[in-house]
């Protein structure tokens, strides 16, 4: 097999993730930076909410990249290895909480990264966005 | 005066610009990368449409930055100076068509950059987004 | 709301901050690098005093950026998270002491960062500069 | 001779250059970014005037660096070689007008770079600053 079938996130999917994350962040009263990347770690969508941290543009994107490349939530690496990985990837691999992969039918289709709040707030917003995405996927299959 | 009053683009404004640009690009049948930055050239919003060029993530963002920093549409610099400016800003100042500033009450509040189509298509999508933004601003003031 | 009102630091404000910081550093007998950035973390003013450390050009600037993006004095992050944040922002977020935000009427208008002395000296110079700025603001409002 | 005497620009000298440049730019009605570097191309002073271009932070600094490293005004290199030099220095050598060296008793002590206006305006502001500096030097020697 020289090629293989795959599943890709669409820009509608990225837009849904961003909107759901913004809604969750607003409900929480914590402005956030939210990044969505595809399986190639390339940016698909981004929103920086009013009052969120400018420097979180970069960290939120890297959380999304880390989740997309590993297929796992960010934050699970041992502290020593985390810094080595960060150094070895020019900072792109991060162990900060707030990055989640998007996995559909066993395919990693991308990742979402949220940053500007506490670690816990960042993670909650990412979880709300992924939950909204999977719910919509599920509704689509049954409709 | 140690401080001065200013106007800032909100993330709702950035979201409206992205949605209007996506709509215009879909109507045109040409997938695009669309970036919105604030007056400090920091990313506020981004969408990469399905089928658009991955490397346009960067060029679209730089078009937005160039328009925001100059307060003018991109593309008006003489060819010789354009390359010098690109080099002197590590590629951030670009003379590619498709970047437009967003100017409200005389304040540059940001810029939009569109890339992945022809120069003409990129510009048209940016123009459609700015027109939709200004129309909504106008409606808001009269409602 | 597609836009929102804001307050910006002027270059006169940045110049006052630099002059007050230089004066405080001279009184202390410790040469310093002093950077002032706006709310978008873009450089507004800078002075490297005779005898201060050349490599502090970068660290002082990053202290200013960190204070401006967080709205808080630098140095308050837990050691573990501090390194992760530094990595995830290519070193721009720093936990070194000596960065202070400039907050006017609830708006973060920028930050000042001081580096080349001990942590305590850096912080004192930044504090003196912010105090001088706020005093002048106060005088302006009552004159 | 293992060492040699030199002359260095002080931060008071850099401050005078910045103030003179700001005054000239204000008289001209054109906001500018102004950078001063020492003979090692390291930043000594900087001011970004209200309304000047954010991306000129970088280009103004590089004009100062280019003038300091060559000992000549920027802009005198042939177009072809200029781009090669820009590429070979990661954009630090620039042929944009607006950079002038500061030469005292045959020693290059640094450079000033001005950017955000037209090439001609940038150069005029740099010239005004250097003239003010040399005038003050001259007054000092005769007082």
TrEMBL record, chains A, B, C, D:
Q: Which Gene3D superfamilies match?
A: Haem-degrading domain
Q: Does the keyword Signal apply?
A: yes
Q: Does the keyword Signal apply?
A: yes
The secretion signal range is: 1-24
Ordered alphabetically, the record's keywords are: Signal
Xref: InterPro entries: GlcG_carb_metab_protein, PduO/GlcC-like, PduO/GlcC-like_sf
Q: What PANTHER family does UniProt report for this protein, alphabetically?
A: PROTEIN GLCG (PTHR34309:SF1), SLR1406 PROTEIN (PTHR34309)
Its protein name is Heme-binding protein
| Organism of this sequence | Rhizobium oryzicola
């Amino acid at each position: 097999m020289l090629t293989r079938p795959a599943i890709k996130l669409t820009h509608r999917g990225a837009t849904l993730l961003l909107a759901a994350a913004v809604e969750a962040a607003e409900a929480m009263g914590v402005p956030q930076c939210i990044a969505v990347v595809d399986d190639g770690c390339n940016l698909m969508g981004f929103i920086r909410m009013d009052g969120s941290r400018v420097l979180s543009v970069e960290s939120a994107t890297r959380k999304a990249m880390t989740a997309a490349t590993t297929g796992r939530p960010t934050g699970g690496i041992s502290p020593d290895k985390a810094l080595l990985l960060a150094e070895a990837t020019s900072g792109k691999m991060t162990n900060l909480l707030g990055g989640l992969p998007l996995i559909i039918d066993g395919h990693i289709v991308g990742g979402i990264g949220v940053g500007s709040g506490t670690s816990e707030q960042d993670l909650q917003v990412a979880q709300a966005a992924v939950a909204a995405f999977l719910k919509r996927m599920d509704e689509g299959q049954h409709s």
